Amino acid sequence: YIMSGSEVEAYNRSCLSGEINPSLLQLKYLQHLDLSINNFQGIQIPDFIGSLGELKYLNLSRASFAGMIPP
């Protein structure tokens, strides 16, 4: 399936983009984080993602991140 120009435009408007704020670290009991199917425009996966100590599930698929997932 190939999206039309207006569908691509609507998709781009509905996606999260920009940076992931380190204030997520304040969510001490966060266990599930799904950022899939967004457009982070090739930014690096933030190092602090590895510091989310209770995180059990992380989905970054099709989110246009670059780099490795921090340990």
UniProtKB/TrEMBL annotation:
One Pfam short name: LRR_1
S-adenosyl-L-methionine recorded as keyword: no
What Gene Ontology cellular-component terms does the record carry?
A: membrane
Subcellular location per UniProt equals: Membrane
Question: Which keywords, in A-to-Z order, does the entry hold?
Answer: Glycoprotein, Membrane, Receptor, Signal, Transmembrane, Transmembrane helix
Taxonomic superkingdom: Eukaryota
Broad class of where this protein is predominantly found: membrane
Q: How does it sit in the membrane?
A: Single-pass type I membrane protein
**Keyword Cytoplasm applies:** no
Please report the name of this protein according to its UniProt entry.
LRR-RLK
